[in-house]
Amino acid sequence: MPSWHELREHARTQYIVDRMEDDWFSLQWSLNDDRTQRVVVSRYEAFDQEWVEFRSFICAEAELSPRVAVRKNDELNLGALALDADGDYSLVHRAALATLDQAEFALPVQAIASIADRFEVEHAAKDQY
Fold first, then answer.
1. 3-state secondary structure (DSSP) of residue 10
2. What is the mean pLDDT of each run of 10 residues along the chain (129 residues)?
3. How far is CA 115 from the centre of its chain?
4. Could you please report the per-residue DSSP string of 87-120?
5. Which of 28, 40, 72, 112 is most buried by a 10 A CB count?
6. Beta partners for 90?
7. Helices 4-14 and 102-123 meet at what angle, rounded to 10?
8. Cα 46 from Cα 66, distance rounded (Å)
């Protein structure tokens, strides 16, 4: 994907996009058990290049102990657990936009949605993300 505009257009035509803004959009990923998981894809700049962040929310801070979160991070093959300023845990993965092709976009979307949903089932009081 050579540009953010082309990535957004690819997402719009290949996925269920629930919201689209200038620097981010969100996808609604359907899982096999009638559950859905939202993945937010955003653009930012660092190290003199554009990057893409994939983020899917899991649960509130009170629903997952920091020790369990750090141990889960050690088991992840893709992404990392993060705690945001609002007190929500999410699963995050970042990639350079310049080298991101369609397969390298599809894999993180699917993996982040699936892993985040599994963690949400394990730790959240309800299906909220």
1. helix
2. 86 94 95 89 97 96 94 94 96 94 90 94 75
3. 10
4. SEEEEEEEEEGGG--HHHHHHHHHHHHHHHHHHH
5. 112
6. 57, 82
7. 60
8. 28
Phi, psi of 41 (to 5 degrees): -115, 120
Q: Which residue has the tokens 């007190």?
A: 87
Task: Pull the structure tokens for residue 72.
Answer: 């889960």
Closest CA to 56 of 48, 97, 76: 76
CA distance 30 to 36: 4
Place of tokens 């299906």: 127
Cβ atoms of 113 and 30 within 8 Å: the answer is: no
So what's the architecture of 4-123 in CATH?
A: 2-Layer Sandwich (3.30)
Structure token digits, residue 19: 């919201």
Domain ranges of the chain: 4-123
